[in-house]
Amino acid sequence: MASYTKEGCFLIAEGGSAGDELYIFMAAKKNHPEVPKIIYDGRDHAIFLRNARQKIILDYIHPEIRDKLRKAFQVMVVETILDNIKETYPVAMEIVDNIPLDWNKAGLGTWEEVFLSESDHK
Fold this sequence. Notes:
By secondary structure, the protein is α/β, with parallel strands linked by helices. 16% of the residues lie in helices and 42% in strands. The chain has an 8-stranded mixed beta sheet, covered by helices on one side. The longest helix is centred in the C-terminal third of the chain and has 10 residues, at 111-120. The protein starts with a strand and ends with a helix.
């Protein structure tokens, strides 16, 4: 898991006239993306391959957006610096049956383990 980084803060939003477009907002990165794609299996986490050197974990995908993300052919990534957009670009989706990573080794569990247990403690 050492070659992967976790995206500290990102937001997936719906848009377009029919609400059928997905946008992923995240902090701006160095360098321009090269043939970016997102690998997703419909579960808790996705892998954003921004270029050959950047493998970014998009962790804890909200359960209400998972099906839409799984059915998307592409999403728009919007990289921001504070409130300013640095760049926007389309990213192809690659849907797989299972991402073959041990999420526990990356310190990640499931949405339910993390967010439901937090709400129990409030």
